[in-house]
Every structure is written in C-alpha cells, then in structure tokens.
Amino acid sequence: MPAWLVFVVIGTVSGVAAGLFGVGGGLIVVPALIYWAGFPQHMATGTSLAVLLPPIGLAAALEYYRNGNVDVTAAIVIAITMFLGAWLGARIASHVSGAHLRLLFGIFVCCLGIYLVYGAYERLR
C-alpha cells in the first residue's frame, strides 16, 4: 500500500475517533504511524503533534460548540497549560530512548483503559 494511502486511512480512522470520543492523536495516530507506516517512536510523536494543530480539530469543536457542548473558558485554560506541558514533555522525551518511550506509552494506555473500563462497569451496576 502506498504511504499516502496509509496516511489517508490513519487520518480517517483518527478523525472519526476524534469526533466520537475526543481522541485520536496519542491513541490512534502514534501507534498507527509506528506499526502501519514504520515510523520510529519520536517521529510518530512529533508528526502526531503537528497533525493536532488547530485546523484539524476545528470542525468537530465547532459542531460541539454549536450544540452547546464546549466550555470555552475551560478550553482556553487547558489549551494554554497544554501548550506549556507539551513543550516540557517534548523536552523530556528527547532525552528518553524510543524503546523506553514506547514502553511508558503502553503502560499509560493500559492504565487509562483499566480506569475507563472500571468506571464504566461501576456505572452499569
């Protein structure tokens, strides 16, 4: 499969996931770039961050806003602090090997998954 088609599939899947669940960059794009496109960990992370620049999420955010589902104050505060946090995280990541970074990412995703499944299970009981 040509690289551009792999990127189209990654973009489409992550776009749908972003619109449905508010996820896409770290949970979909990074692993997809590593396993489907053969990117090294650092390249996948950097590319995912470049993808997440404002125009990408704008359409979904506007639709949620139109339906009264965006807290603008929270979004601004989180965006500013996320900007600073992303800079700090990138500085740290540049000093960590790709294998260690991938391991930490996997642990993070597993812990998040367990937390979400447990919370959903508790609400269903």
From TrEMBL:
Q: Which family does it belong to?
A: Belongs to the 4-toluene sulfonate uptake permease (TSUP) (TC 2.A.102) family.
- The protein in question is named Probable membrane transporter protein
Recite the UniProt keywords alphabetically: Cell membrane, Membrane, Transmembrane, Transmembrane helix
Q: Which domain of life is it from?
A: Bacteria
Its chief place of residence is: membrane
Q: Which GO terms describe its cellular component?
A: plasma membrane
Localization of this protein: Cell membrane; Membrane
Q: Which organism is it from?
A: Pseudomonas knackmussii (strain DSM 6978 / CCUG 54928 / LMG 23759 / B13)
- Taking the record's annotation, the residue ranges forming a coiled coil are none
Annotated membrane topology: Multi-pass membrane protein
Q: Which residues cross the membrane?
A: 6-37, 49-66, 72-89, 101-121
Pfam families xref list: TauE
